[in-house]
Every structure is written in C-alpha cells, then in structure tokens.
Design goal:
Elements lengths: L2 H23 L17 H18 L24 H21 L1 H15 L5 H22 L14
Length: 162
C-alpha cells in the first residue's frame, strides 16, 4: 500500500476517535439551558470529523486519482533522503516555535514572523510581497477574532501592556 494510503488510514483512525468524542462525549456535560440551542459547542467538531472521515475514505479507496499508475507519483519510503525532509522538519520546528511564542510575543508579531519565515523556508524570496501579505493576513485574522467574534487575543507583546 502506498504511503498516502497509510497516512489516510492513520488520519481515518484519528478522525473516528475524534468523531466518537464529538458525537457521544462532548454533549454529556452541557448545562440544561444550552441543550436547547440549535448550535452546540460540539457542532464544529462533528462537521470536521465527518468531513475528515469522508476525505480519508476517498483517499483510501483511491477516488481522488483519475488514473492510477503504480509507482508513479508515490512516495518511496526507502528513498526518504531524496526528499526535502530537512525542510519539513524545519517547518515543524517553526510551527512549534510559533505556538510557544504566541502568548509572550503577541498574536500579530508571532504570526507575521511565522508567515514570513515560513514563506521564506518554502522558497519565496520577494520580501516586498511577503511582508505586506503577512501583515494583512495577521491583522485581518486578529480583527475577525477580536472584534467580530469578541474573543480576546493579545495583539502585541506582554511588555507593551495591551
């Protein structure tokens, strides 16, 4: 079985466990006044688990490929050195660093640095494009979360007093 199908099988198993938790365990502790709401806190996890299960099944069953040629385009796990494993590990380390600096550096600073560093790592070299797009994306997401949804998200580093 190809590597993409093994990954899809793993994702399917995780999605089944996540879906079980979303459908059967999350709603048990809801207070009575929330049990009459049309949208519960478990609504998004339920939708996410169903969609993930459908996508993983489509990959497992090979529905996403129009014409399958064995060996062509598959990841050969015996030749992992030929792929950009270092770049992937660096990107994972960058994501962990982003998660660790999110609270102390603030959302805007850490997100802009993550987006610029991530795009640089993936091969983008047009700084005049990377920086404004990162600023716009981080600012837009912060505005939506903070102002539209009303969820507090520290925009700047903790020492700036915001």
């Amino acid at each position: 079985m190809a590597l993409d199908r093994w990954i899809a099988l793993t994702v399917l198993l995780v999605a089944l466990v996540y879906g079980y938790a979303a459908f059967f365990t999350m709603d048990a502790s809801l207070p009575p006044f929330m049990q009459r709401n049309p949208v519960w806190p478990s609504t998004f996890p339920k939708v996410l688990s169903v969609l993930t299960i459908l996508v993983a099944l489509s990959i497992l069953l090979g529905l996403e490929k129009s014409e399958y040629n064995p060996g062509e385009g598959d990841v050969d796990y015996r030749r992992l050195g030929d792929y950009k494993v270092g770049q992937a590990v660096f990107f994972l380390a960058l994501m962990v660093l982003y998660a660790l600096t999110l609270r102390s550096a603030g959302f805007l600073v850490s997100t802009v640095v993550f987006l610029v560093a991530g795009s640089f790592l993936l091969g983008e070299r047009r700084w005049h494009l990377m920086i404004p797009v990162s600023l716009l994306a981080a600012g837009g997401i912060w505005y939506l979360v903070q102002e539209v949804l009303g969820i507090f998200l520290r925009p700047l580093p903790f020492f700036m007093g915001v």
